[in-house]
TrEMBL record:
Gene3D superfamilies (alphabetical): Ribosomal protein L25, beta domain, Ribosomal Protein L25, Chain P
Protein name per Swiss-Prot or TrEMBL: Large ribosomal subunit protein bL25
Keywords: Ribonucleoprotein, Ribosomal protein, RNA-binding, rRNA-binding
Record's signal peptide: none
Role, per record: This is one of the proteins that binds to the 5S RNA in the ribosome where it forms part of the central protuberance.
One GO term (biological process): translation
Amino acid sequence: MKFVAFERTLQGTGASRRLRNAQKVPGIVYGAGEPAKIELDHNALFFALKKEAFHSTVLEMELAGKTEQVILRDYQMHAFRPIVLHVDFQRVDATTKITKKVPLHFANEENSPAVKTDKCLVNHVVTELMIQCLAAQLPEFIEVDLGNLAKGGSLHVNDIKLPAGSKVVLHGKKNPVIVSVSEQVAEEEAAPVVTAPVAAEKGKGKKDEKQNKR
């Protein structure tokens, strides 16, 4: 993906506020040289952030007539308004080793024996993985085939086929679960409730007593 950035000369809280009032977003690009202060069109950035590829691929940034390869490192949103407050990018090249979250795309779930035959529920325990690789090998996503998933089964990190040159950063965890299968709980049929006309019976009893006394 390609986007356009502009050089930013002013800095500070007041300058950032003026930029935001002008529908611009302040940002910075670091790595492989001096950090560069930039600004971007707010609406273009806001809608780009809604695209999965903008978060997980190497981007082409056009700045001052030159094109650089960068990856999105961080961005800040307003607490309750749909406004991007700041954005950070990192310069990369083919030899830059990076660590970045990559989304998982699940395929063939509806055709698996767990779903198609046994009507089980498939739980996506993890929807993204932290991947370490060269920037040139960064995948946009990792496909997880659930076609062979069976009742009572599960998939772990070690079961996933990773792109060449990539490895998962587990932070000390040992082969965590990615997908689990659980049986659907059948709804219990509610038994019909029979309410005895207690009040009516009591009333009838009192009436009979009065008649007997007479």
